[in-house]
């Protein structure tokens, strides 16, 4: 086995070695995983270029089914995302030292896969978004997904041709560019990746499977957690509608007179896109206790002191 495969295998305790095989298949064949997940969810999907051996393809399908079986409940879901403000996403990709942080359930309301354990956090692998790769008319650019820290970043850069090592500065530039495009930063937590945070996706409502299913099911299945904030429209709003077109969660509309933006606070995930896209500065993010706690690394790490 390669060094990165050995490091991935060694990162699992003996009782969880079975998760290594799922992680291996997931990262090496992530395009196939998302393709089968979209098909299973009834979403149109473009088939990956690479054709897998039947037995390997069956293994990918089985992994998808395991995720689907656990997705319906907070206590059993082990593959889910936490929406982030831009500055919180930047904190995750600019850590300088290893850390192990048990994330409170007020931040990540799931029972499984909720910790932040970063080894070699400077190692980041950026690659082609598998959701965009599976979309019939994908948003561009394609290289907008990250695996953060080892062993995941080194493994996927070694074994998946669509991923490469990038610097923390490059990662920040990608985050900022995606934010300007109106896309949502989501930190993903997966049991098969060691019961912890593993990746950041920069998501759009037209390609991202997570957001598409969240909107389709209207949040009935707990596959995503809000940022801890909600948008608020102030008096300066002139009803231009810019925020309506950019909201990936369909949480913004204009009032009956078409003169002011209205936030559906139930749908709002607090990503901050509307705040920064508003040309007159009429939209702000405000803390909302009903949306949980933010994944603010500085705040969480200060509690360790």
Task: Give a concise summary.
The protein is of the alpha+beta class and 305 residues long. 35% of the residues lie in helices and 22% in strands.
Task: Please give the structural blueprint.
Elements lengths: L2 H8 L6 H12 L1 H11 L13 H17 L8 E6 L1 H8 L5 E3 L14 E13 L1 H5 L8 E8 L1 H8 L3 E4 L1 H13 L3 E7 L5 E8 L5 H9 L6 E2 L3 E5 L8 H5 L5 E3 L6 E3 L9 H5 L5 E5 L9 H6 L3
Parallel strand pairs: 1-8
Antiparallel strand pairs: 1-6, 2-3, 3-4, 3-5, 4-7, 6-7, 9-12, 10-11
**Percentage of residues assigned to helices:** 25-40%
What is the terminal-to-terminal distance? 40 Å
Count of individual domains: 2
Which class best fits the helix and strand makeup? Answer: alpha+beta
Give the strand tally: 12
Q: Number of helix segments? A: 12
Q: How would a textbook summarize the main sheet? A: 8 strands, mixed
Q: What is the radius of gyration computed over CA atoms, rounded to a whole number of angstroms?
A: 19 Å
Low-confidence parts, pLDDT < 50 over ≥5 residues? Answer: none
Share in β-strands: 15-25%
Which of globular, elongated, flat, extended, rod-shaped describes the shape?
A: globular
Q: Would you tell me the overall average pLDDT? A: 95
How are helices and strands ordered from N to C?
A: HHHHEHEEHEHEHEEHEEHEEHEH
What key phrases describe this protein's structure?
305 residues; alpha+beta; Alpha-Beta Plaits; 2 domains; two-stranded antiparallel ribbon; globular
């Amino acid at each position: 086995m390669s060094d990165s495969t050995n490091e991935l295998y060694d990162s699992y305790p003996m009782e969880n070695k079975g998760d290594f095989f799922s992680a291996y298949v997931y990262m090496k064949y992530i395009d196939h995983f998302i393709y089968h997940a979209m098909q299973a969810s009834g979403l149109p999907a473009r088939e990956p270029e690479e054709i897998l051996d039947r037995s390997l393809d069956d293994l990918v399908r089985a992994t998808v089914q395991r995720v689907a079986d656990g997705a319906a409940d907070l206590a059993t879901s082990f593959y889910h995302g936490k929406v982030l403000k831009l500055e919180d996403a930047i904190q995750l990709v600019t850590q300088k030292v290893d850390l192990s942080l048990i994330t409170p359930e007020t931040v990540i309301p799931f029972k499984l896969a909720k910790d932040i354990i970063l080894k070699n956090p400077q190692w980041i692998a950026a690659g082609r978004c598998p959701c965009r790769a599976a979309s019939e008319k994908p948003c561009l650019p394609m290289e907008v997904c990250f695996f953060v820290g080892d062993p995941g970043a080194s493994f996927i850069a070694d074994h998946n041709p669509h991923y490469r090592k990038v610097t923390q500065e490059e990662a920040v530039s990608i985050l900022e560019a995606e934010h300007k495009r109106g896309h949502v930063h989501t930190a993903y937590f997966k049991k098969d990746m060691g019961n912890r945070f593993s990746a950041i996706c920069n998501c759009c409502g037209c390609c991202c499977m997570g957001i598409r299913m969240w909107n389709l099911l209207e949040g009935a299945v707990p596959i995503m957690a809000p940022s801890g904030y909600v948008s608020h429209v102030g008096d300066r709003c002139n009803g231009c509608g810019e925020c309506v077109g950019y909201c990936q969660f369909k949480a913004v509309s204009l009032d009956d007179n078409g003169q002011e933006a209205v936030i559906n606070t139930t749908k709002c995930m607090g990503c901050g896109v509307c705040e920064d896209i508003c040309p007159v500065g009429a939209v702000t993010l405000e803390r909302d206790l009903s949306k949980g706690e933010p994944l603010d690394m500085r705040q969480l790490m200060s509690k360790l002191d």
